Amino acid sequence: MNRTKNRPLVRGQISPLLAVSFATCCAVPGVALLTWGVNPLTGALGLFNIFLYTCCYTPLKRISIANTWVGAVVGAIPPVMGWTAATGSLDAGAFLLGGILYSWQFPHFNALSWGLREDYSRGGYCMMSVTHPGLCRRVALRHCLALIALSAAAPVLDVTTWTLPVIALPINLYITYLGFRFYTDADRRSSRRLFFCSLWHLPLLLLLMLTCKRRPATDPGPPQS
Predict the structure, then answer these.
(1) Where does the sequence pass through the membrane (predicted)?
(2) Residue 82 lies in a domain
(3) Staple 172 to which of 46, 148, 197, 207, CB 3.0 to 4.6 Å?
(4) Quick check: is 51 in a domain?
(5) How far apart are alpha carbons 144 and 105 in whole angstroms?
(6) What is the full DSSP assignment across 71-105?
């Protein structure tokens, strides 16, 4: 594939054994630091994500289009880990952040893969854009709409104030519009527009969430005598 042909492992600059050794040397202390330096729940999520990426997502890329959904879970777990690192628990906020990252990845990756269909086909990868192009576009649009719903769910779950769904609506509607154009036009131009929109949409949405986060109730203190 053109997008990966210059990577050190592909070019033979390093051996598969060295690559696995380096990955192990990063993974083991990384999980240990998360477990003992943060909390066991965050460490367990990190370990699970390594397993999911290496043992499920990567092999599935040559077997089934299900790899895209598994990969979306892999991408959704890091913000969940951030939440558990800060709070020590898996609650509504963790699942909301994970859900946003999960849904965002479909317009992002499906639009990207649309322009790389020939590369993926030559490489023997089983991607929606190659084997199920109609599904690829439908799923991207569906998850653009899901971002609107998830933004509306944030105040319901007490993660943000009700300001968020209002101020996030323009950018959510815009990415949905581009998702619809990708669905109807099915060309490189519409896929590129959707892909580049996804690059700024996610950080802006997260910044808006931070701005509109729900403040904890102020401790009233001891009753006055």
Answers:
(1) 12-35, 41-60, 67-86, 162-182, 194-211
(2) yes
(3) 148
(4) yes
(5) 10
(6) HHHHHHHHHHHHHHHHHSS--HHHHHHHHHHHHHH
CA atoms within 13 A on the CB side of 117: 15
Looking at the domain assignment, is residue 223 inside a domain? no
**Residue 3, SS3?**
coil
Each residue's pLDDT tens digit, 71-121: 999 999 999 999 999 999 999 999 999 999 999 999 999 999 999 988 888
* Residue 90 forms part of a structural domain: yes
Q: Residue 135, class by beta-carbon neighbours within 10 Å (0-12 exposed, 13-18 middle, 19+ buried)?
A: middle
Domain count across the chain: 1
Provide the domain limits for residue 68.
15-212
Residue 223's pLDDT is: 56
Residue with tokens 């580049």: 196
Largest CA distance in the chain: 79
How many angstroms separate the CA atoms of 115 and 134, rounded? 14
- Give which of 38, 151, 53 is closest to 104, Cα–Cα: 151
| CA separation for the pair 144, 174 (Å, rounded) | 9
